[in-house]
């Protein structure tokens, strides 16, 4: 997947989304590796998603949300998106 | 972007999401081309998104939602996701 420039994420939405994923994960006591494995997402990719460095796809949003017990819309709403 | 197989979208979530985009677009009286242009998404890609044939990225979800006057979370919620 293409790397994300600041220009293409000018509102910092990917950083907000990644921050919500990280906050929910830590609230549940999961390591980043455990969440990646539970969601079926590559571990290195998960780190980049949490830092807002990748334009995460819908299916990965859905997998991550399910792994933390949320609907995809809840995850976005939590991020203020 | 990789094509989506039925197996990778086993719950049909991309079809639900695309259906909500199409329903909102038609409720607003937009053509598919007008929505694609407003969102800054390639016209052919927009058709595939509406049919659930592409794993749409977060930034495109955000652009499409903004073009129809919704937050990204509202679009997903409307799709039951």
Oligomer description: homodimer
| Fraction in beta strands of chain A | under 5%
Distance between the termini of chain A: 22 Å
Anisotropy-based shape of chain A? globular
Number of helices of chain A: 5
Helix and strand element order of chain A: HHHHH
Structure classification of chain A: mainly alpha
Unreliable stretches covering 5 or more consecutive residues of chain A: none
Biggest contact = A-B, 21 and 21 residues
Describe the structure.
The mean pLDDT of chain A is 92. Chain A is globular and about 30 Å long. Chain A has five helices and no strands. The first copy, chain A, starts with 12 loop residues before the first helix and ends with a helix. Chain A has helices at residues 13-27, 32-39, 43-50, 58-67, 72-78. Chains A and B meet through helix 1, helix 4 and helix 5 of A and helix 1, helix 4 and helix 5 of B.
Give a brief description:
The structure is a homodimer of 81-residue chains. Chain A has 81 residues and is an all-alpha fold.
Write the SSE topology.
2 copies of one chain form a homodimer.
Chain A: H1 13-27, H2 32-39, H3 43-50, H4 58-67, H5 72-78
Which features would summarize this protein structure in a list?
homodimer, about 80 residues
């Amino acid at each position: 997947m293409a790397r994300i420039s600041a220009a293409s994420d000018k509102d910092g939405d990917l950083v907000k989304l990644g921050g919500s994923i990280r906050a929910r994960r830590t609230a549940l006591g999961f390591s980043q590796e455990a969440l990646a494995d539970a969601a079926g997402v590559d571990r290195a990719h998960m780190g980049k998603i949490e830092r807002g460095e990748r334009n995460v796809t819908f299916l990965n949003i859905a997998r991550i949300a399910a792994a933390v017990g949320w609907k995809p819309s809840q995850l976005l709403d939590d991020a203020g998106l």
